[in-house]
Task: structure prediction
Amino acid sequence: MAWLQISFVVERDCVPLLEAALENAGALATTLGDAADEPQLEPPLGTTPLWRRVRLTALYPNQPQVLATALALSRSLAAHLGVKPQIERIEDRIWEQTWRDDFEPARFGRRLWICPQGQSADDPDAVVVELDPGLAFGTGRHPTTALCLRWLDGADLVEKTVIDYGCGSGVLAIAALRLGAIHAVAVDHDLQALEATRANAEHNGVADRLFACPPEEVPEGPADLLLANILAGPLVELAARLAALVRAEGRLAVSGILHDQSAQIMAAYAPWFRLDKPRTANEWVLVSGCRKQS
Result:
């Protein structure tokens, strides 16, 4: 089965009505992207910012009536907006297999491996986390996640409790449990992320030791370790909150930090933690430390 993809580049104020019109014409999905190389590295908490120039793409099934409606609407919108859409035919693919082809087993540190489901690590001592291609958001391939995974591989996790704040796929919480942690709390405001985390925990045999929840439902009581792989802005805003979730002499690791933001992060966490020398990967940094006694 083939698909039709229709893309418009418009000012952000046009996006809500354009998106609604394309969906009403039978689009199976719409996606938004940056049309002018304007990265959003520091969105405020609880917001989903748009770029000034947005590429809005709609995907339609190859069904004559749907395509006729979509093409007629596109012509009408083009005349109204004064912009020409890009129309592209896309051949069907086995999307899950495509994802697998791009995701191979990878080692982080001495023994921790992240693998797609159905693949194994060529290492008899491997501690393996398997991820579902249909649900996983984080695979360890981004430098910030890789930094956290390597840090976990070297941490003392046996019988420890862990919080993964901003869990995404749950890869960090699940890795901690596979490395010996006794219990993990995976926290995210995105319900799809929590669903992915629970599914991945079930597949890896650790669901009975993992609790996935939104931030307002984090259980009382500090953890032995806390990881937060988010962004520098939220990390600064959440410093006091995250510090309160770590017991005295417990460990903290935060990432999602650009190199020139590391001093700001260290200043934000220094009141509560004895900080280690930052770890780096490309332009990204991980800041870690030990919670001071109250």
The two ends are 63 Å apart (CA to CA). The longest strand covers residues 246-258.
